[in-house]
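hiii so um. not sure if this is the right channel but i have a protein structure encoded as tokens and i wanna go backwards to a sequence. like what aa goes where. can anyone help
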């Protein structure tokens, strides 16, 4: 089977015309065995710790495995029929085990260190040096350098951290699931749109109860808080939501779901983890692999932005309260009125029909408009190309230089299907590198879930969907326009976590340019481009309450950073008795304009930082927005969103660099200075243009 297994054919494009689920097990089993044999050989004492014999050989030797497993993962995502799901799930544990082995193989660590200490290191290219440094860094963060007698404790900390994180999320889910608000009197549901009522009706039927059932899950809770006229109902739901997984008795909670003790323990363990690795606090551990350098730098950045956004947030809340009082009769404005009154204000001042907008974004125009943006910005050509595909909807394109040389290729799979995973995403099929016979060109997948065309008319997209398409294309261009010659830092490989969204968010800006929109819209019936009046409404709605939303994100970000800076190490509160809630209250006094009630337990359900990977990293959202807006501002300053000189510099200093040098250096090389939040504030309507 191995001899003619199409998953093992790496000569060019993946053989989507031939690959079947039954090819997975033999191919992946073979590649894993080859991979293990390779690692054994390369870590043997007899293998010299040189780039060619060791690091380069390892990267090249494992590439086929990565590509084949990438194809399997891709097919599992876009064609999730039982046979593919089974084939994927059967091999997933094997593949995970292999990666864990690699991460814990100290012989690999020793070889990388030997290479770093050898005279050859100084003669390596910047890319190769960066790969060696990254490998050593990751082994160190995994505890590889600890004295032998400390390793078991470190391992135990890692395990307890991951168990507690999982428990934190489970508690939120259990608490969320435990609550239900059953409404039997329909008049109490005044204001709710039909879809929300229908869903509540269905939920009640499913639960075998009369009436309408509302829960704390977002699709139920969100519309209720936004639309329900009944204030007591909103207040009850708000309190139930705000006290999930806390010590507060809210009528449905259980003491064992209280996340308070878990947070405390997580912070203790993170402090110990940081200390063992030689850091002052856990915030430093988190930032060690990120673009931002120090917790102080991140806090300065966040506070600077908060200072500038707060006056706008205060204006937003004052406007909202005045509207609630004058138009809705809510004289004593409460937090459970915020979403409700905001929705009403939005409708009164900025409403426009999404459906009307959608009629202008017809697929052929949008795709042509997207390609024109790419071609104008980066002086390339995008052309239709041919390849075996996994579904008849899939299109395939190539990017060429003006001279006609191939730069990269990509698949575009736009429409939703029952067997396709939700959302939109970019993935790589092959990365750029220098191979024995020349440069291997990158290949990407762009996947979306838009509605397919019906009734012989072209498909139409909402403006949000167009933004999504540009966003994912930005990730794709990061991969496809790479100049790297080494897999480990080519394209999106090795790019810091807080910088990865720069190209994607950068591309979103073009969806708001009037001239671009003129070129990429044509009404599905009349063929007319988007009218100016509609565009102006879209723009006004975009910045609705941006001040309030900005300070809210900053509140979470500053809280997260201070928590992991001040409560996990040497610079901890000297008295040692500051609690998580004390700290959050301090942050709120500094930046918030809408202060929740004293019993609100936001931290107990802040799963990004306690249950996920965002500890001391929540700021990344704002950080990446600032970077992308600031990059875009370079074009605005040049007076042309397609300025060829700025475009070339953006490509040269940021987009094509991949992970070969730190993202902050990329940024400074492009902008000639540190990032500034001014452009983002201006784009959000918070600075006079
Ligand atoms: Zn993204």
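sure thing!! here u go:
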């Amino acid at each position: 089977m191995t001899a003619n297994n199409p998953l093992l054919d790496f000569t060019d494009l993946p053989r989507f015309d031939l690959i079947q689920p039954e090819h997975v097990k033999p191919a992946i089993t073979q590649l894993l065995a080859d991979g293990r044999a390779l690692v054994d050989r390369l870590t043997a004492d007899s293998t010299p710790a040189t780039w060619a014999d060791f690091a380069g050989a390892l990267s090249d030797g494992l590439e086929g495995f990565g590509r084949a497993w990438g194809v399997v993962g891709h097919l599992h995502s876009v064609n999730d029929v039982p046979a593919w799901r089974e084939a994927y799930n059967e091999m997933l544990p094997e593949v995970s085990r292999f990666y864990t082995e690699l991460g814990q193989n100290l012989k690999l660590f020793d070889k990388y260190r030997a290479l770093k200490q050898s005279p050859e290191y100084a003669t390596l290219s910047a890319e190769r040096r960066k790969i060696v440094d990254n490998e050593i860094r990751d082994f160190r963060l995994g505890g590889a350098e600890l004295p032998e007698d400390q390793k078991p404790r470190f391992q135990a900390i890692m395990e307890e951290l991951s168990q507690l994180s999982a428990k934190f999320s489970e508690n939120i889910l259990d608490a969320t699931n435990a609550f239900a608000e059953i409404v039997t009197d329909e008049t109490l549901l005044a204001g709710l749109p039909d879809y929300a009522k229908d869903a509540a009706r269905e939920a009640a039927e499913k639960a075998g109860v009369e009436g309408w059932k509302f829960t704390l899950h977002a699709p139920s809770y969100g519309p209720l808080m936004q639309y329900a006229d009944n204030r007591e109902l909103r207040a009850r739901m708000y309190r139930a939501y705000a006290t999930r997984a806390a010590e507060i008795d809210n009528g449905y909670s259980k003491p064992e779901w209280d996340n308070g003790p878990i947070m405390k323990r997580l912070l203790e363990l993170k402090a110990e983890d940081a200390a063992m690795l030689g850091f002052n606090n856990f915030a430093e551990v988190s930032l060690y692999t990120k673009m931002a350098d120090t917790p102080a730098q991140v806090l300065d950045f966040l506070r600077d932005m908060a200072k500038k956004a707060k006056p706008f947030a205060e204006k937003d809340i004052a406007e909202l309260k005045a509207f609630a009082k004058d138009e809705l009769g809510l004289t004593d404005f409460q937090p459970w009125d915020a979403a409700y009154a905001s929705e009403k204000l939005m409708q009164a001042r900025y409403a426009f029909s999404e459906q009307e907008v959608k009629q202008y974004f017809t697929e052929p125009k949008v795709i042509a408009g997207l390609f024109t943006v790419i071609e104008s910005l980066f002086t390339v050509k995008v052309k239709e190309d041919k390849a075996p595909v996994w579904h008849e909807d899939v299109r395939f394109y190539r990017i060429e230089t003006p001279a006609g040389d191939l730069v990269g290729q990509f698949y575009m799979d736009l429409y939703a299907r029952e067997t396709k995973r939700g959302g939109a995403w970019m993935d790589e099929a092959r990365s750029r590198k220098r191979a024995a016979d020349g440069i291997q060109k990158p290949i990407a997948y762009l996947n979306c879930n838009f509605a397919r065309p019906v009734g012989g008319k072209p498909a139409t997209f909402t403006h949000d969907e167009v933004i999504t398409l540009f966003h994912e294309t930005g990730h794709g261009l990061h991969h496809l326009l790479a100049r790297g010659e080494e897999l480990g830092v080519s394209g999106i490989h090795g790019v810091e976590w807080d910088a990865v969204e720069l190209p994607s968010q950068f591309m979103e800006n073009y969806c708001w340019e009037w001239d671009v929109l003129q070129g990429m819209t044509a009404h599905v019936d009349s063929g007319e481009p988007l009218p100016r009046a509609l565009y102006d409404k879209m723009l006004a709605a975009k910045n609705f309450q941006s001040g309030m939303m900005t300070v809210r994100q900053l509140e979470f970000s500053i809280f997260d950073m201070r928590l992991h800076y001040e409560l996990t190490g040497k610079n901890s509160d000297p008295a040692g008795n500051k609690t998580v809630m004390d700290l959050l209250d301090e942050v709120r006094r500094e930046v918030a304009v809408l202060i929740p009630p004293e019993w609100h337990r936001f931290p107990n359900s802040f799963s990004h930082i306690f249950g996920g990977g965002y500890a001391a990293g929540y700021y990344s959202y704002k950080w990446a927005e600032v970077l992308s807006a600031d990059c875009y501002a370079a074009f605005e300053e040049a007076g042309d969103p397609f300025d060829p000189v700025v475009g070339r510099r953006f490509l040269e200093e940021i987009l094509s660099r991949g992970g070969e040098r730190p993202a902050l250096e990329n940024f400074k090389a492009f902008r000639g200075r540190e990032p500034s939040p001014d452009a983002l504030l201006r784009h959000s309507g918070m600075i006079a243009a």
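oh and The chain has a mean pLDDT of 95.
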